[in-house]
Protein 1
Amino acid sequence: MDDLYRENILDHYKNPIYKGTLEPADLSFEDENPLCGDHLRIDLRVDEKGNVTDARFSGHGCAISQASADLLLESIIGKNIEDLKKLTKEDILDLLGIEELGPVRLKCALLSLKVLKGSLYGIGQKDEDL
Amino acid sequence: MDEKQIIQDFPIFHQPDRNGKTLCYLDSAATTQKPLSVLEAMDTYYKTYNANIHRGVYHLSELATEAHETTREKIRAWIHARSTTEIIFTRNTTESINLVAYSWGRKNLNAGDHMILTEMEHHSNLVPWQILAEEKGVELDFIPITDAGELDLEVYRQLLEKHPKLVCATGMSNVMGTIPPSKEMISAAHAAGALFLLDGAQMVPHMQVDIRDLDADFFAFSAHKMLGPTGIGVLYGKESLLEAMPPFLGGGDMIKKVHLRSFSANDLPYKFEAGTPAIAEAIGFGAAIDYLAQIGMDAVFEHESEITRYAIQELMKIPGLKIIGPLTSSNRGSAVSFTLDYVHPHDVAQILDRENICVRAGHHCAMPVHERCNVDASTRASFYIYNSLTDVDRLIDGLKIVHQLFGQD
C-alpha cells in the first residue's frame, strides 16, 4: 500500500509528460471507468510502418489512472502497434512498480490500457480480455 | 448515550487491523455495522428453530413464523403504521420502489401523465421510473437542487400545476445529508391530486418517523442501514392502494388458490411476498429495532448531529476542501460529502484506508447530484451511533496525510 503513492507515481500524476491532445491524430479513443467517473482519451500518431511516433492522453481521474496513462504512453513511443496489442495487465503493474492491486483500483490502473487497446482495435475492450 | 457500551456491543470494533489500528468506520450511509444481539438472533434461529414459515403445521415452523411476524409488528409500531397489512417485506429499498413502479405504476400511469422526481435522488429512486417512463411514455419532471443544497420548493409548486399522478422524493439525501420538508411536500402533492412515495432509506435509521403524521402513500427503507442484516427491506403502502394493486412477483406464499390456468392472490401483506422470504434476516431486523428502541431515536439523531456539527466545523478548516450540500448543522443528516481540489476521491479513500478509516469515494449511487454540483466524484463520511468525535479527529488527521502527499505546496 505504501508503494502505491511512491514518488514516481505521484510525480507522473502531478507533472505528466504526455498529457494533452494531438490534432490531428491517426488513432484516437476514449472511455471511462463508471465506478468513479474517471474519463480518459488517448491520441496516437503512427508512421507508415505502424510505429508510434507520438502519443498524448487527456481526461481526468485519480492518481493511479493518470500516472498509469503517463507511464504507459512513455513506454510505447517508437513501438509497433502490433506489439502494443500484446500488452497485458502485468505490463501495467510493472510500469507502476506494484505487484498487486485490489480489484477496484485495478480498474483505475488498467483504464489507460483499455483505452489504448480501444484505439488500436477501434472498439472497446472488456476488462477480462486485457 | 453510553458510547463505551455501544462499542462493546459491536464485535467488529474489537479487532484492530494488521497495523494495530482500530476501525474508524465512516460509511454507515452505505451500510451499518451490526450489534451482537442482531447476529445472535439470526444465529439462534438457524441453530434452534430453523424452518420455513406460513405453511408448516409443526411446532418449529410455528416458532419461525411467529418470530418473522413479530418483526412485522415491530416495524408497524416503529413507523406508526395503522396495520401490519401495510408492511410488506422486500429485499431492500430498491426492490420496494421497483415494486411500486412495476405494480402501481404500470396500472395507473399512462402516456402523457406527469410524475415528479428530484435531482437529489439515489439511483434506486430514478432508474425504476426511467424504465417505466420509457415503457409507458410517462413525463418525468425534476425538482432542482438549490445552491444551498436544498430542494427548490418554488419549482416544486410550479411542477405540481401540471397535475402529476405521483411525486417521489427522498426523506434524507445520501450524499448531502439534506432533510427536505417531507410533510409539507406530501401535503402539497395531495392538494394537487398526486400520490407521494417517500424514500426512507437514509431517514428511518437516523430519526423518528411517524408515517401517519407524514401521510406518505408509499414509504421504503432497508434493514442493513439501521443495524440489521442485508437482504431485507420494507415497503409501506396505504392499505387501500395496496389492495387495488396487482401482484408483483408470482409464486408460492402470495396466492390463495392456484389452478393450471389461473390463481387468486393472497391477502395483504402476503400478496406481495412471493417465495420463501429472508426469515433469519427478518428476525435479525427485529433485534436491530429493539437495539435502536432501547437507545431512542431522538438520542440517535442528537448524537449524530453533534458529530456532524464538529465534522463540518473541522473539515471547513482544510484548505481546498469544499462540502457538497448544506453547511447548516441543524436539521441535517450525518452524510457529509466533500471534494479536495488537488486530489481525486479514490486517492483520498485509499490513503485513509491505510489508517483503517473507511469512507466512500465515488458518486455514492447519485450521479445526477454530482453532475448538478459539477464534480465527477466526492468523498463521503457518514456517522452513526458507534461513532464519536474521536473518529472526526482521525478523519482530519488522515486528510492531513493526504495533503502531505498531494498538496501543491
Note: The two ends of chain B are 42 Å apart (CA to CA).
Protein 2
Amino acid sequence: MSEITVTIDGEKVQVKEGANILDAARKINVDIPTLCYLEGVNEPAGCRVCVVEIEGEVGLQPACKYKAKEGIKVKTNTPEVLRARKTVLELLLSDHPFDCLTCAANLNCELQSLADQFNIRQIKFQGEKNEYPIDDLSPAVVREPSKCIACRRCISVCSEVQEVHIYDVLERGFPVVAGPAFNDSLLDTPCIACGQCILVCPTGALHGKDDKEQVWRALRDPDKHVIIQTAPAIRVTIGEMFGMEPGELVTGRLVGALKRLGFDKVFDDCFGADVVVMEEGTELIERLENGGDLPQFTSCCPGWVKFCESFYPELIPNLSSCKSPQQVFGALVKTYYAEQSGVDPKDIFSVSVMPCVAKKYEAGREEMNDSGQDRDVNVNLTTRELGEMIREAGLDLNKVPEEDYDEPMGHASGAGVIFGSTGGVCEATLRTVYEKLTGEELEDIELRQIRGEDFKDGEIDLGDGRVIRAAVARGTGNARRLIEKIKTGEEEYDFIEVMACPNGGCVGGGGQPVYSGYDRWTKMGQHYLKRAEGLFEADRQKEHRKAHNNPHIHRLYESFLGEPHSEKAQKLLHTGYTDRMLYTRDRLHGSKECNDGALPHCRQGEQT
Amino acid sequence: MGQSIEEINKEKLVEIKKKEHFKKLLEEKNNEKYNLIDFLHEVQNIYGHLSRDIQITIAEEMGLPLSQIHSVVSFYSLFTTTPKGKYTIEVCMGTACYVRGSKDILDKLSKELDIEPGQTTEDKKFTLEGTRCIGACGMAPVVVINGDVYGRIDVDDLPEILAKYE
C-alpha cells in the first residue's frame, strides 16, 4: 500500500493509505481520546469523543472513522474541539450513575479516566437518568445497563467475533441501551458466558460475578479445610496485575501468595489436565478403533460446551464425555485427596482459580456433584478476583517468596500445563495417544503444525498407514466456520479442540485482567502470544512432558481409579450434556406445540 | 362464559386464518421479496402487534438472531409488541400541538381511561399513544382516532368525542 502524508497539529506524518486519523496521531504521540472505538472490532463513530478539525471539512470529524487522505491538515486540540469533547462527556455523565467508588470498574474505567483528563468537576446538565435494574442472575456475567454508554463494543464482540449474537441495541433515543433481546436476563439467553464482553466494556456496565466473599468466609472458618487449584493460564497472566510483563511465569510466587492467604493446600489444576489427557485420550482411541462418533470434540472449555449445547446440539455425541480439568480435579479432591490425606470430605472447601467466567457457570452445573459432597468445586475465582484478594491482603506478588505446590495433586506434566493455550489440549492429548497407538515415542514432541492461528489443522502419521486428522479452533466464531466446513463435507477430522476465547484460548480468557483503551483488543491479540510462550516455556522446563509419564498420575490410577474409563473413573470424571437450544427446542420436540393458537409454533400457555 | 358456540368457532376461524396467512408469509420469505422491516410490517398487519413469541418465530424462520429482530422492533415506534385496542387514540405531541395544550389532552385521556400512554384499556377498547408530529400543525392540537382527525380541540371536547366510539 502506498504511503500518504498528513499534517497533524502542524507536524507532517506518513501513514499507510486507509489509516485513520487516530493511527496517524498515534505515530507522532498525539493523544486523541476515544470511547466507543475498539480497534479491529468496533467502529460505530457513535460517541464523538474523538472529534478533530479537518481543514476543508464542515463540522468536526470523528478521528476513528475518518480515513487519512493525502495532504489533509488536522487539528486535534483547538478550543472548539476541546469544548465539543467536553460537552459530549458532560452529556454522557449526566446520564451515568456516580457510584464510582464502589463500581466494579473503579480506576479501570475509560469514562472515568476521560472525566479526569478533561477535569470535569461538575455536570452542567441535570436531568432524567436511565435507570435499569442490575441483572446478576447469570452465574458468570453481571450487567448494569444504567452504566451502559451504548458504545456497542459488546455487540460487536459477541456478534462479529464470537457469533453468539446475544446483544444488540435496544430502543432508540434517550433510553437506548445495549442488551439481550427484550432486555432479558443473560440467564435466559443462549449466552455462553465466555466473558469477552467484559474484556471490552469501557465502563462498569459488564463485569464478572464477584465470589470473593465466599472464599474469605471459608478461609476464616477454622473447621474448613480450604484447598485451591490453579489453572495453567493463571501463572502467566496474574503478574500483569502487579505490573509485570505479559507472559511472565510466576508459578512459585503464585503458590507462595496463596499459602499466605491461608489456603490449607495449594494444588495444580494441570494435574487435573493430565487426568483429562488420560481419559480423553483413551476415549479418542476407543472411538478411532471401534468406529465411534468422529470427530471427537474436546470438552475442557465450558464456553464451548455451552455453545455446542445451545447452537449445535446435534454434535453432543461428538463431545468428549470427559469433564473439564476443573471438574475432574473437583471430583478427585473430595474423594482421592480426602482418602489419601484422611481429611473428612465434608470439611473440604474446594476453590478453583480460572482465567474464565464460564467456569463459574460450569462449577454450578447441576450434575457437577459426583463426589457426593454437594458441589465438587464450591467456588470459582477468576484471575482478576484472585489478584484483588492478593492485593487486599496487602501482598505484592513481586516480593512474595516462591513455594512449591502441595502433594498429591500438585505435580503435573508439561502436557497439563499447555492446556492454557490454544492448541495445547490437542497437542497434550496427541502426545499420549500417539504413544499408546504406536508404542513409540513421538519424536517431534511439539506438534507445531497444529499450534496456533484462528483454526489450524494437521495430520499425525501413525506409521501404519493410519493418520489422525486434528484441528484447533479458538473463538466460537471460528468454531462455527469449522463446524460448517465439516457439515458440508469440505473437511474431515478425527479430533478437534475448541476454545471459546479468540485471543489464544484460556490465556485470553474472560476472567483475565481487563485492559483499557481503544487498542485493548489488539493488545490482547499480541499479548496472548507472549502468555502462551510463557506456558510453553513452563512445559519445556518440566521433567515429564507427557501426562502418562507423570508418576503422580500413575499413583492416582494405581491406588484409586484403576485404569482410564474404569467404573470409578466413569462415575467421577465423565459427564453428559444437555440440548440447550433455547427457542427451537420446544418446536423440534413437538411436545409443547399448541394446535389451535394463532401462531404456527406458539408455545402452550403463552398468549400471543 | 357468555359466548355462544358460534362465536367461539368464529374466533377460532379468525385465529386459524391468521396462522395460515403467517405461514404463507414465512414460505414466501425465501423469495427474497421481503427485507426484514417489510416482513415485520406484514406480520404486524396480520396480528396487530409483534409479541415475544412472534419475534422468536420470525428469528427462527428467517435464521436471524433474536437480538437483531428485537432491536429493529424496539427502534421503530410503528412496531408494537403488545396487542392494540379496538380504537387507537393518537395525540400529536409535535411542537405546535404541544404548545397548544396537547399534553393536557394526553393527561386527561390517560386519567379518563385509567391507562398510561402506550397502554391499552383492560376491555381492549382503547389504546392511547402520544405520537410525533403528524403534519397537521395548522389544526393544533390534533387527536387522531383510527384515522379520524380531530383538530383544534380542548380537554372539554373529549367526552363527546370518546362517546362516538362504542
Note: The first strand of chain A starts at residue 3 and ends at 8.
